[in-house]
Input
Amino acid sequence: MAIDVTALRAHFPSLESGLAFFDGPGGTQTPRQVADAIAATLTGPLSNRGGVSPSEINAERAVADFRAAYADFLNVPANGVVHGRSATQLTYDFSRHLAKTWRAGDEIVVSRLDHDSNVRPWLQAAVRAGVTVRWIEIDPETTELDLGTYERALTPRTRLVAVTAASNVLGTKPPLRRIADRAHEVGALVYVDGVHFAAHHPVDVPALGADLFVCSPYKFLGPHCGVLAADPELLGTLRPDKLLPSPDTVPERFEFGTLPYEILAGATAAVDFLAAADPGPGAGRRERLAHSLAALHAHERTLRTRLQDGLRELGDAVTLHSKAADRTPTLLMTLEGLDARDAQTHLAARGVVAPAGSFYAYEPFTALKIENPALRVGLAPYNTADDVDRCLEGLAGFLSTAPGS
Output
């Protein structure tokens, strides 16, 4: 099982720039097929949804195709797929929806490993609802979640556990099914930030134990939007504030205003592009996705090994904070006595895009006592061994400029 990376890269106009992109955790480059789908839908004919004119039917088809594509991508029913502007927006929305069901004395559990979009909405909802917040801590030695603190945080009063499937800065993948099973034992719902995970692994929402799972197509070659997946029966128990004339069906009751049909079409095209990358013999789209994603992620793991080996050769000047045994091909590092933002600038001048910052990962940075911006190098399906070598050479050159080097 091997991806033809040269053939894959030919579909990405931005790669003609000669840049080597390592900013996939913040958003990937986009294949031509996705842009074509957006343009074709937007230029129509296109109207609001309906079943009379061709333009109305085109809009209806864009919505139906989107739900079907993400049903296959996430292994949920099509009417369990909710569109949102972003994962952050969806999490804020659902924090409000779920908080309506909370009562005084209830508790929720959040994680120090998570991006702030799966922390702050819940903390703010908890304050408004008057419920208690408990924490799952990070083991700084392993950058894994400390499951002992999870056991102590979980009680019969727990109503929700919010946790990531993979850290967008450290790459750590916690044992999600184990976490979910324990939450379900006390009757709590599990809300999973799958934004980084979905970019690097096939997703089976029920198998993960997630009650609600959110991801972002622009992290896996699509346009900027968010997708939430859940059992339609669960969605049917939630009553969002909405306009009186707007649909009350699931999932439409959670989608406010006119949908961006062209973005839906682009998000669908991203799933189809992934399914076609290395489809194998599978007849159905989900089977083709499973085969393609396994090949793509094997390629990423190979590159991660090459990158890690090269970083070790750079010596003690590089501190690698990504330590978990099970993690994505995303590496976070700090540089001894140097500003990672200067490293970003140095690399950019050499055609290597690797950002520096804290990446909205407030809790992990605080827990690990990372006080300065860090450099994040994340791999995507279109990266090559040459890209990795360019990045390593650029870092070596930057370190050689340090005082005393």
